[in-house]
Specification:
298 residues; alpha/beta; Arc Repressor Mutant, subunit A; D-Maltodextrin-Binding Protein, domain 2; 3 domains; 8-stranded mixed β-sheet; two-stranded antiparallel ribbon; 10 strands; 38% helix; 20% strand; globular
Length: 298
């Protein structure tokens, strides 16, 4: 008789996917409602099961091994098939799951959700946020919103808005002694960055005849949300997308001190996954997002 083969734990496979997606045991633990040590044990159990290390760990990074990439691909496939089966067999309603960057959720989607639920009180959206600069699709998401450096040719994707970079700051940041009326005045203030590469400020300064990046003071962050909050507190001038800053501009928390928006060709795009089509509310959800994008009449 053939020897019974033990299969890896589904919880272990879930832990692997979450750690790989977030790049962090801590964030994976929060998503799974487990302790960090519990997630570490599940990964160790998988490594014991397969007899190979799945991650290369260092004090600064967490990277999948070649074998880890193979196990991850199988884990995504297995979990995706189980989710599809559950959706097909389970009669109860489930939320439509959308994955996006945390700053986009807070600054763009959250102010609009009351309108969504007024129009569709029987439909539930489940919003999953990530803090990584690149939003990767997850096996349990129906759609995801990501930033693209130029428009997409994918007919299934929906362009929500185009990127337009503007400097923003607190209304009282400048005064007669330290005015902020032109690009030349920026040398007196800290530049607040939404990402480590400082690319937004680099692009805007180049388009507005600004100085080299080395000529300014800098306060770096890794989120639009943090940079905008720092700007509202008077710490300096942030470079951000006009649409993401619009609610704060409308409330007077932030102002655009000078300059015209810089159109970069970048877009924020809603991309449905294959599982979206099986959700009974998919069409009305996509129509609502198209309405927010100004692509259909209200």
């Amino acid at each position: 008789m053939d020897k019974i083969r033990h299969v890896p734990s589904l919880q272990g496979l879930q832990a692997l996917v979450e750690v790989a997606d977030s790049g962090s045991f801590t964030q994976a633990a929060q998503k799974l409602c487990l302790t960090q040590s519990a997630v570490s044990r599940k990964i160790q159990q998988l490594e014991t099961h397969f007899g190979v290390p799945l991650f290369v760990r260092s004090s600064r990074s967490l990277q999948l091994t070649v074998e880890g990439e193979q196990v991850l691909a199988s884990a995504r496939n297995i979990l995706g098939q189980l989710i599809t089966l559950e959706d097909r067999l389970s009669p109860q309603k489930r939320p439509f799951r959308i994955r996006m960057h945390v700053s986009l959720a807070v600054r763009w989607l959250l102010p609009k959700l009351s309108d969504f639920y007024l129009r569709h009180p029987d439909v539930s959206l489940s919003i999953e946020t990530v803090a990584t600069e690149i939003v990767e699709p997850a096996s349990d998401s129906d759609a995801y919103i990501l930033y693209l450096p130029e428009p997409s040719n994918d007919p299934a994707s929906l362009t929500l808005f185009e990127e337009a970079l503007v400097p923003v700051c607190a209304p009282g940041l400048s005064d007669l002694t330290h005015p902020l009326n032109s690009v030349d005045d920026l040398v007196r203030f800290a530049l607040l960055h939404r990402s480590a590469d400082k690319q937004a400020w680099i692009d805007w300064l180049a388009a507005n005849d600004g100085k080299s990046l080395e000529d300014y003071r800098h306060i770096p962050f890794n989120l639009d949300e943090l940079a905008l909050d720092a700007a509202a507190r008077g710490l300096g001038v942030a470079m951000t997308d006009l649409t993401l800053a619009q609610e704060s501009l409308d409330r007077g928390v932030l102002v655009v001190p000078f300059g015209q928006p810089l159109r970069t060709r970048g877009i924020y795009s809603l991309c449905p996954q294959p599982s979206a089509a099986s959700h009974p509310a998919c069409d009305v959800i996509m129509q609502w997002f198209a309405l927010q994008a100004g692509q259909v009449a209200s």
